[in-house]
Structures are given as structure tokens and as C-alpha cells.
């Protein structure tokens, strides 16, 4: 690495965190202890006093932003489960990590929803996947699986149908890999083998009843006719799951009074595939291509977050080499281009949601295409990039962006990579952003539909753990790239875009602002790319496919286009045994940003729901995981 | 003025509309061919331009990755036509994230000892996620990502489990679809051949050099020694250069040694990986 390396994230305001922890320990000597396990950080909080301690953290020490709350099952290690929380200050700085432990049987932890309402969905997820009961949670229902699903699939003793082995690689593949069709294991075929303790008769779906109960349905006709005046009844409308504007399979149950929304309940999980469980069966490296499939619009950013998290773990060992400077430059190049890709897409489809069917989207997509061509030439794939590796990247930029004619293809293209990039960054992208701006920003129709609609006040945005453009459009200048810097962002010159009205229009404008900032960053990246030409893009031995990951935990977070993307990873493995994450959790911005959706829609017209959802910008691959 | 914003927007739409036609007119009938096509696909392009798939296809870049194929020696290779590059080391099967590679390693029919060759090799392309790890981590450059993305078929059962025959493609094919990468890899290996062939050659060269040395030494010794001893000194030198002999026996022995070494190499690789 050169002398321009980034500030290690740990050193920013580290004193503050330490002071806060010390003060907390003094204040609550019996309830707060250091987490002394090898490779762990933060404090353990007595679960019976969790709410009190959390409130002190928020009010006295300023940790007003709960980024991530997730559960870990330590079956066989400590025979307990624990909730892990990462709280931040919106003024910046590293995390205050605290944990609450509970026995596995009758697992129960008090809900933090009163302290940070943003814990809502995350606690429901932990309840759903781990079976931890959150005392005090007002709406503790399953969120990703259906009501009536038997068991909690993230528990370490839960085995999925077609369970093969605890960890990949599976022994049946080599050296005696007599192939069988995956379809022969089809759940509806006769070969399916369920674990002994799975009771099929209990797999019934009661979620519908649960959803509609308490929504005030049903008309009392007698009462209606007895009354003199005309009364309206509430109407429950299901928007989705198959609805063009939901960008996937997402459902909103809306209670309407006339055209006005009284309540909105998001229902998700239609695309749930237990990504985290898959990730825990996988080896460390094998998770990188899986992260592509979370938010498939911005796979480079997904890769980046994951490799940063695992690099933190690797850095605890002694064989670790930090990525080279060139690798960091290329990474930033990729993620910033990816941010543009995402925002083009988001703006295009927001306009679709507003009814400007596909003309603006296609203009945006045409620009996005140029970037995808570049991704394809560098990483090999347009969307499933799988480009970053621990300690570096997959390959250096190619000299030429070239399609070679062969048996399959005929139309040849051949560009010099640096020329292509320079032209793209200096000419094409700024031009097209200006054009989008000119095209849409002043349109009276857009203004009428968006200004003042879907208002989210800043306090609420923070409390609900919103992230990314949604948070910043409400006037909170919180950007992980600046607040808790990583990679080479500290040496780059850019501003955190912020807007103050918190409505759809500002969320649209802030995306334009961010695109301009990204172009500004990219312009600074170009000379760095030139300067580091020919330097190593990988530190260490690139042929290692089963890296030894030291014991410990790490939380890697990046400012993804949709908001803060975090990966919480725990390594517990025997250094000689299989090398797999013990815990692999994704703090998905698309998921958590939906927490205030109901609040934002309350009192709005039904036609605005789609626009509000579009302005949050979600991808269901990431929401449902 | 109210409505000005909408008019501005419509202006942009109109500009795009016109640009598409003017570009078509400007490039004329050549717009579908050669460098005109290239310009229209580049960063300078104006207007909306659609590639008329499947009549037209875009050439994919070199690193483009789709379902992998296995490299075999060219069918007109002088020494080992059609020989697998794969040594059944199993690294690709281990690294494959969705575990869609199945390899049966060959066994010696008599001794049951493993041979560094795949007896069968399957990839379930319905499961393959085109991640490219197999190609990235194969130590023998024996599995590569293909460019052929038109794999749809009417059969959903066994057609999509590619067996060794379906997977195998000549090395020259790899050189045509990815010339730069192939050249880089060849440079890393030290030649265009399979790494084992290169090593074999190097060893042979070294042996020959040594033989020559020994012979020279023997000749020197012979100059000063009695004639009776000269025969004895020359004998080991002749043995040290078996390549020159070329009898069937020597060939078989060499083949045997090569296989053993391949197996050992694969084991060593696997071990290195485990330790690394
Ligand atoms: S890694 Fe390469 S040599 Fe080893 S089994 Fe796979 S294809 Fe064969
Ligand atoms: S490309 Fe990836 S998924 Fe496909 S066979 Fe290779 S390693 Fe497996």
C-alpha cells in the first residue's frame, strides 16, 4: 500500500466509544460487562435491564441510530443465543456494539422498539428465523416466512429439506461424483427426505387470518341503516404481491377510508430463500457471488461490503495483507459506477410509478447500459459481477473492452478501456445526468405528484433506522463514506448530498445530487487509475480458495446506493476444520427502509402509495433475502 | 409559465426521437455493420439503438463468463490428441458455490490407485451460477468459462447436465474466444502446452543437459582411463537420456511416471490449499 492509505475505521473517535463504554460500565456495574471473547468487541448487557441501558446509550451518549440488530445461535459453543446490536451516532464515528444473551430454550429478550423504532422489522426477523420472543413488541409476527411455518430455520439445529451436509464442499461431489439430478430431490417428488422432526401436518398457513384480524373489517348493516347519515365503510385493498409497481413480489395491505389510507401493512418474504442459512453452509469465498443476488442492481456494492467485513476478520490473523492501493482505487471506481447504475434505475422506475410509462426509464437505462458494458468487460458479467475478493479484486482492468468474434457472436466492438472510461466519466455521464435533470425536474406533473407527498421527518427517519437517500432527503447528512469512512474515501473530495423536505420530490432530487457527487469522485479516480497502472491488484496469494479466517466477529458496512448495507459475520470454526461463517447476517437497506412505510403513507391517497414506495427504492432480492 | 416544464420535457423526448432517425440516416445501410456498429454501441452513440437479436448479436467481451467447458488438447495435437487437461484434482468441485460440479476420478483397474484423470465429469448447468470460480482456481487451466450462452432446450431432464463429452472443447477454441487471457495464462505456465507437458519438457531438457555433461565428463575420464573402464562410465550416461531411445517400454514407463507425478502434484496442491 502507498502512504495514502485510508484511515482505519477504528481510529475515528475511538476515544469516544471507549469513554462511553467506560461510563456505561460505571453507571451500570452489574448489568454491563466487556465482551471478552476472543475477537469480539463491545459489551454484554444483562437482558433484564436491556431497555434501560439502551435508553441511556441513546439519550446520554448520543447513539441515536440503531443500524443493525440480529441474532446469533451459539449452539454447541455456548449453548445460548444472543442479540447483537450496532448503534451509531448520526454525527459519525464507529459503532457501539452491545449484546444481550438468552438461553436457547424459551429464548426471550425485551424489545427495543420503544427506544429505537427501527428495531421493529429486525426483531420480527429474529423472532421469525430464531424464535426469540421480544417482550413488549406490539406486532410480533413472522415477517419473512408464513405464519404457521414450523420451526425457526436459522437455528443451528434446524435442517432444511434436501439437507445434505452441514458445510460445503459436499463429499459426494469428488472424487466419486456420480451425478444425480437436483430435480430428483424435488419437494413434490417421491424422493424427498425430510428430517425426522419435521411435522408436515403442521405446515399450514394461517397468516391471512392473522393479517386481517384487527383491521376493523365487516359492516354492521343494521347499524348502518339505523343511522340517518350516510356512512362509509373501510375497505381493505391488497396491493400486490403481483403488481407491476412493486418492482417484484411485494404486498401492501391497505385499509382505505374513501381514497385515504388509514393503515398500511407491508407483507414480504415472497422471495425469501434463507440467504443467510445458505451463507452459513457456504465457504467464506463462495458467499461473494451470492451477495450479487441480494440487491441485483448494485452487485459491486454488495461485494464490497462483504469483503470489507471478512477482511476485518482476516486482519485479526497474521497472514493478512491489506488490499493494495490499486485494488482500492478499482473498488471505488466500481462502486461509484454502480451507484450511478442504481440511481439511473431508481429514477427511471420512480417515473414509471408516477405514470410516465417507460420513456424516462428507457433513457435512463440506455445510459446505464454503457456502464454495464464496462462491468461485463472487466468482471465478466453485467449484473452478477462477483468481482471483489478478500485482499483485492478478481482481475485488473483489461487493456481493451473488446468483444471477439467467434462461433456465436458476430458484431465486434473494441475500445481502449481508459479512453472509454475517460469519455464515459467526463462527457457522457455528466451530460446525461444534466439531461435527466432538464427532462424531469421542472415538469409540473412530477411536481404536483411528488412535492409534499410521503413526508418523513428527520427525527423519524433516524428513529426508524432509515438509510441512504431516504435518510438524507429528510435532512440528515449521514453517509457511511464520511461518517465511518472505509477504503480510500477519506482522501477523495466529495460532499454528502442532503435535502430537507423529506418528500418524494427531494428523494428524487437527492439521487440526482448523489449522481453528480459520484461523477465528481470518479473524476478523481481516473488520475489515480492512470498513476497506479500496472501495480498489483491483489495482495497475497490469489490461489487460496479456503482462507483461514480467525475466530471473532466483524461488522462491515458500506454506503450502498440504497442505503447502509452491513454484513455481520462471525467465525467460530476450528482452524483445521471446515471454513465457513458461523453467522452471516445481511443488514439490508431495502428491508429496513420499509419500516416507516406505513407511517409515511398514512393519510395519503391510495394512488400515492406506489410513488412513495418507488421513492424508497427497494429491491426484493435484498428485502426478502 | 405554467406548463413550461412539461414542454421542456417534451423537447427532450423529441430530441431523442429525432436523434434516432438522424443517426439511422447518417450511417445509412452500414449502420448494422463494422465500425459503424461499433460507434453506435460506444459512448458517443446518440439516439436509441436496438440490437436485432437473434439476427444480430453482440460480440461478448473476452472475460464474459457463461457455463464452463473443459479444455482438451487439440485433436490434431502431435503427442496427445484429445487428452484432458483436467487432472481430477477436485479443486473446482470444492470451490463451486452451488456445488454443481461432479467429478469421478479415474482409478487404476488393477491397483485401485487414483489416476490423475477424470473418468467422468458433470456440470449441472441449471444450478451453475456462472460465477467463474472453477476457472479462476483451477491450477491446471483445465476448465474455462464459455461464451456460448444459447443453451435453451426443450428437455428439462438430462440435457442440462453436461457430461465430459459435452463439456470438452479443444484448447484452440479457448485461444480463439479469449486470446489475451490465453496468452497471459500461457506466459504464466511458461508455454502454450499443458503445464505438465511443459514440466516434462523442462525435465527432459535438464536430463539431456545432464547426460551431455556426464557424457563429457565420461569422455574426459575416458581420455585418462584405461579402455576397459570407458564402457562402464558411458552406460549410466545412456540411461540418463531415455528420451532418445523411444522404445515402447520406455514410453510406458514415462507415462506411468507422468501420472504419478500428476497425482502427487494434485495432492500437493490440495494440501497447500488446505494449509493456506
Ligand atoms: S480444478 Fe481443474 S484440474 Fe482440478 S478437477 Fe477441476 S478442472 Fe480438473
Ligand atoms: S461457474 Fe461457478 S457455479 Fe458454475 S460450475 Fe463453475 S464454480 Fe460452479
Structure description:
- The complex is a heterodimer of chains A (about 625) and B (about 280).
- Chain A has about 625 residues and is an alpha+beta fold.
- Chain A has two domains: about 15-135, NADH:ubiquinone oxidoreductase Nqo5 subunit (Beta Polymerase, domain 2); about 275-535 and about 545-625, Orthogonal Bundle (Cytochrome-c3 Hydrogenase, chain B).
- Chain A has 20 helices and 19 strands.
- Chain A has helices at about 15-25, 50-60, 120-130, 205-210, 220-225, 275-280, 285-290, 300-315, 325-355, 360-380, 415-440, 445-450, 460-465, 470, 480-485, 505-530, 590, 595-600, 605-615, 620-625, and strands spanning about 30-35, 45, 65-75, 80-90, 95-105, 110, 135, 235-240, 240-245, 250, 250-255, 260-265, 390, 390-395, 400, 415, 550-560, 565-570, 585.
- In chain A, the strands form seven sheets. In chain A, strands 1-2-5-4-3 form a five-stranded mixed beta sheet, covered by helices on one side.
- Chain A is globular.
- Chain B has about 280 residues and is α+β, with helices and mostly antiparallel strands.
- Chain B folds into three domains: about 1-60, no CATH class; about 70-195, Alpha-Beta Plaits, CATH 3.30.70.3270; about 225-275.
- Chain B is built from ten helices and six strands, in the order ααβαββαββαβααααα.
- In chain B, the strands form two sheets. Chain B has a three-stranded mixed beta sheet. Chain B has a three-stranded antiparallel beta sheet with strand order 2-3-5.
- In chain B, helix 6 packs across helix 7 (about 180-190) and helix 8 packs antiparallel against helix 9 (about 225-240).
- The longest helix of chain B is centred in the C-terminal third of the chain and has 30 residues, at about 195-225.
- Chain B is elongated and about 110 Å long.
- Mean pLDDT of chain B is about 80; it is low at about 225-245.
- The interface between A and B is large, with 79 and 73 residues.
- One iron/sulfur cluster binds near residues 88, 89, 90, 91 and 142 of chain B.
Amino acid at each position: 500500500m502507498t502512504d495514502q492509505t485510508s484511515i482505519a475505521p477504528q481510529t475515528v473517535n475511538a476515544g469516544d466509544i471507549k469513554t462511553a463504554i467506560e461510563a456505561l460500565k460505571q453507571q451500570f456495574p452489574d448489568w454491563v460487562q466487556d465482551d471478552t471473547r476472543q475477537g469480539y468487541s463491545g459489551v454484554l448487557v444483562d437482558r433484564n435491564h436491556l431497555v434501560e441501558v439502551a435508553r441511556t446509550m441513546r439519550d446520554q451518549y448520543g447513539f441515536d441510530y440503531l443500524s443493525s440488530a440480529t441474532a446469533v445461535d451459539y449452539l454447541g459453543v455456548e449453548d445460548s443465543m444472543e442479540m447483537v446490536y450496532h448503534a451509531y451516532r448520526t454525527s459519525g464515528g464507529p459503532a457501539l456494539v452491545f449484546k444481550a444473551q438468552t438461553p436457547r430454550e424459551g429464548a426471550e429478550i425485551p424489545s427495543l422498539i420503544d427506544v429505537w423504532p427501527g428495531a421493529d422489522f429486525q426483531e420480527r426477523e429474529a423472532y421469525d428465523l430464531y424464535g426469540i420472543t421480544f417482550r413488549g413488541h406490539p406486532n410480533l409476527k413472522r415477517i419473512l416466512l408464513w405464519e404457521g411455518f414450523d420451526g425457526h430455520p436459522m437455528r443451528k439445529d434446524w435442517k432444511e429439506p434436501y439437507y445434505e451436509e452441514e458445510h460445503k464442499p459436499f463429499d459426494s461431489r469428488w472424487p466419486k461424483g456420480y451425478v444425480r439430478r437436483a430435480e430428483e430431490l424435488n419437494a413434490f417428488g417421491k424422493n424427498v427426505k425430510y428430517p425426522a422432526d419435521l411435522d408436515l401436518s403442521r405446515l399450514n398457513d394461517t397468516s391471512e387470518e392473522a393479517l386481517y384480524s384487527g383491521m376493523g373489517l365487516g359492516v354492521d348493516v343494521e347499524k348502518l341503516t339505523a343511522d340517518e347519515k350516510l356512512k362509509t365503510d373501510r375497505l381493505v385493498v391488497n396491493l400486490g404481491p403481483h403488481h407491476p409497481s412493486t418492482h417484484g413480489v411485494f404486498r401492501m395491505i391497505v385499509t382505505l377510508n374513501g381514497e385515504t389510507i388509514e393503515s398500511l401493512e407491508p407483507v414480504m418474504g415472497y422471495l425469501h430463500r434463507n440467504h443467510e442459512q445458505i451463507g452459513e453452509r457456504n465457504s467464506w469465498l463462495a458467499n461473494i457471488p451470492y451477495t450479487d443476488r441480494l440487491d441485483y442492481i448494485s452487485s459491486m456494492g454488495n461485494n464490497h461490503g462483504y469483503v470489507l467485513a471478512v477482511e476485518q476478520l482476516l486482519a485479526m490473523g497474521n497472514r493478512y495483507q491489506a488490499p493494495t492501493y490499486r485494488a482500492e482505487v478499482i473498488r471505488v471506481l466500481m462502486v461509484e459506477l454502480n451507484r450511478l447504475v442504481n440511481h439511473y434505475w431508481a429514477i427511471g422506475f420512480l417515473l414509471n410509478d408516477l405514470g410516465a410509462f417507460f420513456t424516462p426509464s428507457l433513457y435512463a437505462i440506455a445510459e446505464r447500459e454503457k456502464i454495464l458494458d464496462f462491468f461485463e468487460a472487466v468482471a465478466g458479467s453485467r449484473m452478477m459481477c462477483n468481482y471483489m475478493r478478500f485482499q483485492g479484486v478478481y482481475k485488473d482492468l483489461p487493456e481493451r473492452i473488446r468483444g471477439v468474434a467467434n462461433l456465436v457472436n458476430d458484431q465486434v466492438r473494441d475500445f481502449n478501456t481508459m479512453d472509454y472510461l475517460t469519455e464515459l466519466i467526463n462527457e457522457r455521464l455528466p451530460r446525461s445526468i444534466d439531461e435527466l435533470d432538464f427532462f424531469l425536474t421542472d415538469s409540473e406533473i412530477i411536481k404536483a405528484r411528488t412535492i409534499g407527498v410521503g413526508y418523513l421527518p428527520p427525527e423519524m427517519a433516524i428513529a426508524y433506522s432509515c438509510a441512504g437517500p431516504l435518510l438524507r432527503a429528510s435532512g440528515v447528512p449521514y453517509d457511511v463514506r464520511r461518517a465511518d469512512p472505509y477504503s480510500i474515501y477519506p482522501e477523495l473530495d466529495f460532499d454528502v448530498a442532503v435535502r430537507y423536505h423529506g418528500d418524494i420530490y427531494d428523494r428524487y432530487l437527492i439521487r440526482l445530487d448523489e449522481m453528480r457527487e459520484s461523477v465528481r469522485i470518479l473524476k478523481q479516480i481516473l488520475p489515480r487509475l492512470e498513476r497506479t497502472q500496472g501495480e498489483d491488484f491483489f495482495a497475497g496469494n490469489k490461489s487460496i480458495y479456503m482462507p483461514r479466517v480467525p475466530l471473532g466477529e466483524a461488522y462491515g458496512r458500506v454506503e450502498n446506493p440504497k442505503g447502509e448495507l452491513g454484513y455481520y459475520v462471525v467465525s467460530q470454526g476450528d482452524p483445521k476444520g471446515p471454513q465457513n461463517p458461523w453467522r452471516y447476517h445481511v443488514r439490508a437497506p431495502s428491508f429496513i427502509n420499509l419500516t416507516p412505510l406505513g407511517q409515511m403513507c398514512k393519510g395519503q391517497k391510495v394512488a400515492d402509495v406506489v410513488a412513495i414506495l418507488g421513492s424508497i427504492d427497494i429491491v426484493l432480492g435484498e428485502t426478502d433475502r | 409559465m405554467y406548463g413550461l416544464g412539461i414542454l421542456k420535457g417534451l423537447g427532450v423526448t423529441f430530441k431523442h426521437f429525432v436523434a434516432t432517425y438522424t443517426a439511422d440516416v447518417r450511417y445509412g445501410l452500414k449502420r448494422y455493420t463494422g465500425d459503424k456498429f461499433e460507434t453506435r454501441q460506444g459512448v458517443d452513440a446518440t439516439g436509441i439503438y436496438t440490437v436485432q437479436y437473434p439476427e444480430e448479436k453482440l460480440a461478448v467481451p473476452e472475460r464474459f463468463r457463461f457455463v464452463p467447458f473443459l479444455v482438451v488438447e487439440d485433436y490434431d495435437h502431435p503427442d496427445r490428441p484429445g487428452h484432458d487437461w483436467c487432472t481430477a484434482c477436485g479443486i473446482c468441485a470444492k470451490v463451486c458455490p452451488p456445488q454443481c460440479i461432479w467429478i469421478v476420478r479415474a482409478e487404476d483397474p488393477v491397483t485401485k490407485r487414483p489416476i490423475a484423470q477424470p473418468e467422468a465429469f458433470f456440470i449441472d448447468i441449471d444450478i451453475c451460477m456462472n460465477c467463474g470460480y472453477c476457472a479462476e482456481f483451477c491450477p491446471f487451466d483445465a476448465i474455462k468459462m464459455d461464451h456460448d450462452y444459447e443453451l435453451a432446450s426443450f428437455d428439462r431432464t438430462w440435457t442440462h447436465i453436461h457430461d465430459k463429452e459435452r463439456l470438452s472443447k479443444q484448447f484452440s477454441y479457448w485461444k480463439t474466444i479469449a486470446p489475451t487471457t490465453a496468452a497471459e495464462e500461457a506466459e504464466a505456465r511458461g508455454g502454450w502446452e499443458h503445464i505438465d507437458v511443459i514440466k516434462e519438457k523442462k525435465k527432459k531438457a535438464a536430463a539431456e543437459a545432464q547426460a551431455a555433461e556426464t557424457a563429457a565428463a565420461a569422455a574426459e575420464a575416458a581420455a585418462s582411463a584405461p579402455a576397459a573402464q570407458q564402457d562402464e562410465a558411458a552406460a549410466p550416461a545412456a540411461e540418463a537420456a531415455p528420451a532418445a531411445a523411444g522404445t515402447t517400454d520406455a514410453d510406458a514407463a514415462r507415462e506411468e511416471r507422468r501420472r504419478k507425478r500428476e497425482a502427487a502434484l494434485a495432492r500437493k496442491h490440495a494440501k497447500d490449499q488446505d494449509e493456506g
